[in-house]
Specification:
Layout (H helix, E strand, L loop, with lengths): L2 E6 L2 E6 L4 H7 L24 E4 L6 E2 L10 E3 L3 H16 L15 H8 L18 E2 L5 E4 L8 H9 L5 E4 L6 E4 L15 H5 L5 E3 L3 H8 L5 E6 L20 H11 L3 E2 L2 H22 L5 E2 L4 H10 L13 H17 L6 E7 L3 H6 L14 E4 H10 L21 H4 L6 H15 L17 E7 L5 E8 L1 H12 L7 E5 L17 H15 L12 H11 L5 H7 L15
Parallel strand pairs: 1-5, 11-12, 11-14, 13-18, 14-15, 17-18
Antiparallel strand pairs: 1-2, 3-4, 3-5, 6-7, 7-10, 8-9, 16-17
Length: about 575
């Protein structure tokens, strides 16, 4: 590794050749304000100019996020010239930004607010020229809202959509003061190939992109005495919700979350982990059937709705590789309005199912026309982790002061295998535990299948499973990584039996509805919380051990892949193609 020596604010530091001034300053302990730069998405466009610094000998100020260091370079980040320039840039941004901070969805968690404070801004000398709302807000999508008035043209959303997710829905358009980030041809999101993953939301520094909020709709049904309202929560929620109340990332808040949901007025608090366990039984048996009967292999998981829609758009000819299992969210909704409605003596027309999900794509999934196995919509409303956090605050609940509570039965029991669904590799690990036990009649010697864990983009593993022999598997998270595996299938080079794909980098623990910011450190902490929950001595660790799952097969479903399971728990997918709109 070749090093160069530079001086930043009289601090000598050695950094790798090719490093930017921004990264060198970080190593020297010097903070430079930024808006467009993001370590998480790699590419930095250098467009906001908030990070300008002074290089001795250079005529003009330079953008530190893109300017490389050279041997002997002397850099000043705190001169009057630099401070004045940064203030001017932020003033100009604010002069064309709606003055709605107190009721903006990102109020208190807005990078523009933070940068304005960081540069010491106390007034804006220019008239506010922000455009009116009319025609500037695109709420056509079931999942995501774009408010072009608030866009600061940092291009972070463009980068994550094009380079990380490889969907390329968003891009820059026009020039000068008319410059904007828009879908192709400035079409609404609902007429694009957006897969609803929400990673654009996660990297947006302001409130220009956000989830479609359904909190008020949920309040309405909670206060309707004629409705029986049940709620389910994805495994990732319990490892992230605490962050909305100031707790450190990776805080496991399952008991407090349950207590808060009861205080909000839900009639029953169940858990998506219950149907995560059920998914493993159905999906594991589907895999075994394909292996034994010469079915389409490799089989690919179908839990992530963003991934499903990506496949429908960009790899429609490979749809037969997808498991026919619904996601755990949709399985839960179908069973709540059939199995639970029957044992509770409730007419399903009077039941409302609310999901708490880390995923904006779940909002789209719940509205897919085929998701009505009970004769009613399986899931009525989907709230993100952030929406639930806002709802708890609106309800005046002291979240940190809540005593832990327990889930309701029967759809609140789960195993450790269900809870690790929230981390990349978790579905694969849970499936292998059960497949091994079903085939061999014994448990894996070590239930911790570490080769499929972690944040490496594509992971591979091979496990000998009794008479089946060696079972080869692969795991990908982030759709750019998914492309690598899908292209291998197209080329005939994928000798796997089973593939897990999650749309979002890190899996559900970093979905488009999770607390902001989310980075790799946060992803690891949230994942570790789920693995800790998995290893809890109070819980079974394999899906087939769940007593409530055994009960539902004994009394209702009868058998995996049977008639009832086929009707309620399985589905088909749509060949959309790259030119087809998202919502149809």
């Amino acid at each position: 590794m070749s090093l160069v020596n530079v001086t930043i604010d009289d601090i000598d530091v050695s950094v790798e050749k090719g490093s930017t001034i921004l990264s060198a300053a970080k190593k020297a302990g010097v903070q430079i304000p930024t808006l467009c730069a993001s370590q998480e998405i790699g590419h930095t466009p250098g467009v906001c100019r908030v990070c300008v610094t002074e290089v001795v000998g250079a005529k003009n100020l330079v953008a530190s996020c893109v300017h490389p260091v050279t041997e002997g370079m002397v850099i000043n980040t705190n001169t009057q010239r630099v401070r004045s320039a940064r203030k001017l840039v932020v003033e100009l941004l604010l002069s064309n930004h709606p003055a709605e901070c107190t009721y903006c969805v990102r109020n208190g968690n807005c990078e523009l607010q933070k940068v304005a404070e960081q540069v010491g801004l106390r007034e804006v000398r220019f008239e506010n020229t922000a455009p009116p709302k009319e025609g500037m807000i695109d709420d056509s999508s079931t999942s995501i809202v774009r408010d072009s008035r608030k866009c600061i043209n940092c291009h972070r959303c463009v980068t994550v959509c094009q380079s990380i997710q490889t969907v390329s829905v968003l891009g820059p358009a026009w020039r000068g003061s008319n410059a904007m980030v828009v879908p192709a041809f400035d079409l609404p999101l609902s007429e694009s190939t957006c897969i609803n993953c929400g990673q654009c939301i996660m990297v947006c520094p302001v409130g220009a992109i956000y989830e479609k909020d359904q909190v008020q709709e949920v309040w309405k049904v909670l206060q309707d005495p004629t409705k029986h309202v049940v709620v389910q929560e994805a495994p990732a929620i319990r490892a992230a919700l605490g962050e909305e109340f100031g707790m450190p990332p990776g805080s496991l808040v399952t008991g407090k979350m349950i207590a808060a949901l009861r205080r909000l007025g839900f009639d029953k608090v169940f858990d998506t982990n219950f149907t995560a366990d059920l998914t493993i039984i159905e999906e594991g048996n589907e895999l075994l059937k394909r292996v034994k009967t010469g079915g389409v292999l490799p089989m690919i998981t179908s839990c992530s709705p963003g991934w499903i829609k990506f496949c429908e758009h960009f790899y429609p000819d490979l749809l037969p590789h997808l498991s026919t299992c619904k996601s755990p969210q949709q399985m839960f909704g179908a069973l709540a309005k059939t199995y639970y409605a029957k044992i509770a003596g409730i007419d399903p027309k009077d039941m409302i199912v609310v999901s708490i999900m880390p995923c904006t794509a779940k909002k789209f999934e719940s509205q897919r026309p085929e998701m009505n196995a009970s004769g009613y919509r399986d899931v009525d409303y989907v709230l993100t982790t952030r929406e639930l956090g806002r709802m708890i605050k609106e309800g005046g609940i002291d979240f940190l002061g809540l005593a832990d509570d327990e889930y309701d039965s029967p759809m609140g029991q789960y195993t450790g295998a269900g809870t690790i669904f929230g981390a990349t590799g978790g579905v694969m690990e849970a499936a292998l535990r059960t497949v091994y036990a079903v085939v061999t009649g014994e448990n894996l010697p070590d239930l911790n299948i570490t080769p499929v864990r972690g944040l490496e983009g594509v992971k591979e593993a091979a496990i000998t499973v009794g008479a089946l022999g060696e079972v080869k598997v692969a795991v990908a998270h982030g759709l750019g990584n998914a492309r690598k595996l899908m292209d291998k299938i197209l080329e005939g080079k994928a000798d796997y039996h089973f593939i897990e794909i999650m749309a979002c980098p890190g899996g559900c623990i970093a979905g488009g509805g999770e607390p902001i910011p989310t980075n790799n450190e946060v992803r690891s902490l949230r994942s570790n919380a789920l693995y800790k929950d998995d290893e809890s001595v109070q819980r079974f660790r394999q899906s087939h051990e769940n007593p409530a799952i055994k009960e539902i097969y004994d009394t209702f479903l009868k058998e995996p892949l049977g008639h009832m399971s086929h009707e309620l728990l399985h589905t088909n997918y749509v060949k959309r193609g790259s030119g087809m709109p998202q919502e149809k």
